[in-house]
Amino acid sequence: MVPVILTVFIILACFFLLVMYYDCNRFVTVEYEIESPKITGECKFVLLSDLHNKSFGVQNQRLIRKIEELAPDGILAAGDMLTAYERKRKHHVAVSLMQQLGAKYPVYYGMGNHEQRIGLDREAFGDLYETYLENLRQAGIEPLINEKVSLPAVNINICGLQLDRCYYQKFTTAFMPETYMTDMLGKASAFQYQILIAHNPEYFEKYAEWGADLTVSGHMHGGLMRLPFFGGVISPRLTLFPHYDGGKFEKDGSVMILSRGLGTHTLPIRIFNPGELIVIHFRPARGGQ
To answer: Which is deepest, 11, 53, 126, 163, by most CB within 10 Å?
Structure first.
């Protein structure tokens, strides 16, 4: 009996290792459609999140080729393009990708907890934060650090929210004051379609209350491993079966599109959970302007 159990265990272990290797090195394209009477023209954005220095081919050419095929009007980057490793201060993979994208498309870059960490922990990371931001600016990308940019041709407003570190704690969800969003970003536009880039999806209700028509997020990595009927297994906060693990969510007319990300860090695990390249199509709704 013991040899049989051991054999089954080895077979299962090998199967999951193969799936993990396969899923860690591929991505799928997922498309969403957004309609609103506030939007005055059609446009298309690609959403990237949680690259974590992952390269799909040399200089991410597999990823670049797919984005070129999709021919977006712009790129939404929802944070964690690099990884804050103290012993491996690497950022060249993220810089290379942003440089290639910035040369071809407008890139709207919101900050994740890893970008934020390299800026806060100067003892560990030195001037990496300033260097990275300067590299982005040289690529024509101005990070949206609690800032906004308007796209008048389609009546869309894009905000990038950088959450404080307390909102990324393990095991617990920090309380967010009622005025936090307004204090960070000012009031949401009532007349423009409001896109909010907010890396952590767990505060979606607060984003909706603030006035975000669409929130784009990442951070959850799809729950690392996905199970039928249960979805993602574990969150970065180390909680099991998180509600916000990936996909599209709605709250009182507000929508959140949550990317499962592209790369991994710390635990290089993706099982039944390939990386995601998301395409969002924006269109005026019937009766819109």
So the answer is: 163
Query: Which position has the token pair 């990317």?
Result: 259
Which amino acid type is present at position 250?
E
Q: Residue 220: how many CB atoms within 10 A of its CB?
A: 27
| Residue for token pair 């819109």 | 288
Is the pTM higher than 0.90? The answer reads: yes
Are the C-beta atoms of 220 and 237 separated by less than 8 Å? no
Residue 167's φ and ψ, nearest 5 degrees, are: -90, 10
How many angstroms separate the CA atoms of 206 and 63, rounded? Answer: 33
d(CA 155, CA 41): 8
Sequence-distant (6+) residues with CB within 8 A of 181 are 161, 206, 207, 209, 210
Is the separation of the CB atoms in 110 and 79 below 8 Å?
Answer: yes
Q: Of 229 and 99, which is predicted with more confidence? A: 99
Give kind and range of the element (H or E) at residue 46: strand 43-48
pLDDT single digits (tens) 132-147: 999 999 999 999 999 9
- Give the number of C-alpha atoms closer than 13 A to the C-alpha of residue 260, restricted to the C-beta side: 29
| CA 280 centroid distance within chain | 13
Question: What are the CA-CA distances from residue 275 to residues 27, 28, 32, 47, 262 (Å)?
Answer: 4, 6, 16, 12, 4
**Burial of 170 by CB count in 10 Å (0-12 exposed, 13-18 middle, 19+ buried)?**
exposed
Collect all residues with Cβ–Cβ distance below 8 Å to 63 and sequence separation of at least 6.
27, 56, 57, 97, 262, 277
Among 224, 169, 229, 233, which residue's Cα sits nearest to residue 202? 169
